[in-house]
Amino acid sequence: KLFFTDYGNAAKVERCDMDGMNRTWIVDSKIEQPTALALDLINKYVYWLDIYLESVEVVDYQGRRRQTITKGRQFRHLCGLAVFENYLYTINSDNFSILQINRYNGTDVQALARLDNAKEIRVYQKRTQAAVRSHACEADPYGMPGGCAHLCLLSSSYKARTCRCRTGFILGSDGRSCK
């Protein structure tokens, strides 16, 4: 799945399949400017920052069990969001400090370090890397990903895929070639 935020005409947190199909709103009320999100892949939770509401909130992948982690003026200038173990990590864009927020007790907030002009934060950890034995976009005997001429996008599961073409090309009637 692909998760993303939108604060155009109607602010929301959404999800869709990697090929853009099955687009679903998972949060569309009591939300104003969701600017960053992070996924807990193990427990299937979506965390997001709302800089207008000055809050950090969470829901499950279906948009249920919504909770406010923390709220207040100190969260007005945050950008970027990452989750690792018991903590959320974000950047305060006023002073470029890395903040650590206990995701179970939002009152436990600590500044860890300062970076020059940081706008985003990511945590890379081996446990968060999906282990899939095989998937629909693996290269075929001719080296084409999923048998697609240009792009292979995973669909509703790792066993399903959709072929797409680069800009200026049209997908052929076979659903794989590009013209």
UniProtKB/TrEMBL annotation:
InterPro entries: 6-blade_b-propeller_TolB-like, Cueball_EGF_LRP_Nidogen, LDLR_classB_rpt. GO terms for cellular component: plasma membrane. It holds the Pfam family Ldl_recept_b. One of its GO terms (biological process) is canonical Wnt signaling pathway. LDL-receptor class B repeats lie at residues 1-43. One of its GO terms (molecular function) is Wnt-protein binding. PANTHER family: EGF-LIKE DOMAIN-CONTAINING PROTEIN, VITELLOGENIN RECEPTOR-LIKE PROTEIN-RELATED-RELATED. This is LRP1B protein.
